[in-house]
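Issue 218. Parser rejects a valid record. Input:
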Amino acid sequence: MRGGAQLSVTDLRRSNRHPVDTQMLAEHRSRGDIALHIVNISAHGFMTRTETGLSRGERVIIRLPHVGRIEAHLIWAVDNRAGFQFERIIRMDEFNRLIESLQPNQRLRRTR
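Output the parser choked on:
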């Protein structure tokens, strides 16, 4: 019999990721504000193309439109790309409004 949780970070990567191109400030507890260039986002997390200098597991807080402040932790980083996982899943109604505000071009939005 297999033990342990059935949900893993790898499983969360199957979420629909929506392409965006937005700059945001993230708050880090010791480094202060960090500028992030977010290139895709899902209800579970986001990817940046920014050299963050952060280590795996470090946490930041960002302020998303229609969602508000949300904490995320660094899951992986390669060169100038980094993947963050939200500390909670964003509700679908909030996420839909978030995507509409971050990706106004209907043709670039992924179907939900």
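Fixed in the parser; the record now loads. The longest strand covers residues 18-28.
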